Amino acid sequence: MTRTPLADVACSIARATDLFGDAWTALIMRDVLTGVTRFDDLAHDLGISRKVLAARLSRLVEEGVLIRERYQERPPREHYRATHKGEELYPVLLALMEWGDRWYADPAGPPARIRHLGCGRDTRPVSVCAHCGEPLTVANTTQLPGPGGRTGPGTQVLGPLLAAREDPPGAGRPAAV
Amino acid sequence: MTRTPLADVACSIARATDLFGDAWTALIMRDVLTGVTRFDDLAHDLGISRKVLAARLSRLVEEGVLIRERYQERPPREHYRATHKGEELYPVLLALMEWGDRWYADPAGPPARIRHLGCGRDTRPVSVCAHCGEPLTVANTTQLPGPGGRTGPGTQVLGPLLAAREDPPGAGRPAAV
DNA sequence: CCCTTAAGTTCCCTCAGGGAACTCGGGTAG
DNA sequence: CTACCCGAGTTCCCTGAGGGAACTTAAGGG
Fold it and tell me: Which segments of chain A are extended strands (E)?
């Protein structure tokens, strides 16, 4: 991958994006998490080139997001399953799906429903504060440098969000960031 | 974009991924939402090629995720700001960041903290059921075809998740991860 | 008058992705 | 025993998107 080594950047979005910011990875994870785990099934379902699928899968295995498992001895057959790390990508998929539903849904409605087995209802995912349970939005959060943040040139981690919003660059100069 | 027209697929993840499944889009949105809104600032901060940045920005404007605004008349200067549609990508970014923090954080800790202004605490985003507030996980949800779902070949929307997990394709079922 | 800044464009080049055929190990049907 | 199917990749060729760096345009500034 000749891509700029985003993994070096001190931003978790960048690190996650280095793996996940790919046209296919999200779709592969969706499929694997929903039970489409075999190479040919994935290739057929996604319409992805087999070459690229093989590359993505081995990358995902390397990253510890998937494991390649033998599911049958005779003839030997392998498939891919999500690790714990892989399953934790589920919120990302949910958020992506929710956004797609809100902004690109058919007039008929969303193509899929999510049933929460805990309460038995069809539901939508909401990103909330782990402490108080209120939904997190751009407007009610600020990013501050964390312990692992090495703030320096090229490592803009997550700037002063509200500062920028409270002083919109419309009139004067944009907030220096 | 010669990419397979994922937007046609009846899956919201695919639609969202068509726009968002790109090495740079997530980082651009992070920057714009955190106050880095000018072309040169983005180019410098991300280390992205100016050509690609211009292409991404106009795509994002086309999609209604960003707007190009004049922030200064003399000399005329433009910058980019998130629309409502763009701000609603925030949960996706949060989920990505959270995942990156959990799995790739420096030993020192995450590079950024999120302060929830509502309750005043540093927090983590959690994806919960809109009805009962419980966290949504792979294990406690199922996907069902929705009203807009045209189930057919190549349009595997979101399969029967738990069905697949309860009856994996192998003889001996792999240990639940 | 020349330099600088902001915001892009243009050019060239390489390499990742698409498409389709080929491989390889191991059935199963005749 | 041979011939024909899998499933799971690999190989080959070709196009085009991305990297890098220089060029452009418009407006100040010293």
Answer: 66-72, 77-82, 112-116, 121-123, 125-129, 141-145
